[in-house]
Design goal:
six-stranded mixed beta sheet, 6 strands, DNA primase, PRIM domain, alpha+beta, 4 helices, about 170 residues
């Protein structure tokens, strides 16, 4: 999981572009990715991994390595340090959710925030300029779930992490 956590001064369209960048990088590593709103100001990009042989520390380190490359290539846009004072104008690429005891909001979870937003699975065709996470609320989502196509092939997207790690070393 990659949690894109923007500073308050970062436009949501920049978060969208960043999610698509992570998607493209994961695709280069042979991984399939899915996106969801967080019910907040960010997006989550998730890649399902084959369960056999997965080690939490290795998964977390791999996610960190992807984020480190992004932050090194665009330090004015990304950082991997969670210190709020350093985030101005940038997106914190939070790979720390990839830990056995870490938590993250699940798809379709309502959030305890004004407007009762919901963390909503979205298709990559929806992840474009104009995506408005505020339309996904406890009032609107029940009707949308009936037509939901996002993430329907999630389990088919499982890939071995070992292959991605090999490619990551070559990128």
């Amino acid at each position: 999981m990659f949690d894109l956590d923007p500073a308050p001064d970062v436009a949501f369209d920049v978060v969208i572009e960043s999610a698509r960048e992570i998607r493209d990088r994961l695709e280069e590593l042979g991984l399939v990715s899915f996106c969801k709103t967080t019910g907040g100001k960010g997006l989550h990009v998730v890649t399902p991994l084959e369960a056999e042989g997965i080690d939490w520390a290795v998964a977390k380190a791999s996610a960190r390595d992807v984020c480190k490359v992004m932050a090194a290539e665009a330090p004015d846009r990304y950082l991997i340090n969670m210190a709020k004072k350093e985030r101005t104008g940038r997106i914190f690429l939070d790979y720390l959710r990839n830990d056995r005891m870490a938590t993250a909001v699940a798809p379709l979870s309502p959030r305890g925030r004004p407007g009762a937003p919901v963390s909503m699975p979205v298709t990559w065709t929806q992840v474009k300029k104009g995506l408005d996470p505020s339309v996904y609320t406890v009032r609107t989502v029940p009707a949308l779930v009936k037509k939901l196509k996002a993430w329907e092939d999630y389990c088919d997207g499982e890939r071995p992490l070992a292959n991605a790690i090999k490619r990551l070393g070559k990128v």
